[in-house]
Write a structure and sequence with these properties.
single chain, alpha/beta, two-stranded antiparallel ribbon, 6 strands, 3 helices
């Protein structure tokens, strides 16, 4: 249903991650934007297995992930370029 749709995903934790996970299951390409050094706070939630949060893995499977520092001019330029090639930003 969403094949060919690219989504630029700025969400964290449950609500946004769950919605974009469902979009992946419907065929969308999700590019998850995370902050350097911090990433998505969901990465820190308990129930870790092998050093990874089971919560994070469950809610972000099938997504691509990129760390971008949007406080820099280079980071903002990269985000604008990604947005130009995306149909949805969440």
């Amino acid at each position: 249903m969403l094949s060919g749709v690219r989504v630029l995903d700025f969400t964290q934790y449950l609500a946004g991650a769950g919605v974009t996970r469902m979009m992946v299951e419907l065929g969308a390409e999700i590019i998850k934007v995370e902050l350097p050094d911090i990433g998505d706070g969901g990465r820190l939630l308990p129930f870790e297995a092998g050093g990874r949060s089971g919560f994070f893995v469950q809610h972000n499977r099938g997504k691509q992930s990129i760390c971008i520092d949007w406080d820099t001019e280079e980071g903002r330029a990269l985000l604008l370029e990604l947005a130009r090639h995306s149909r949805i930003a969440t």
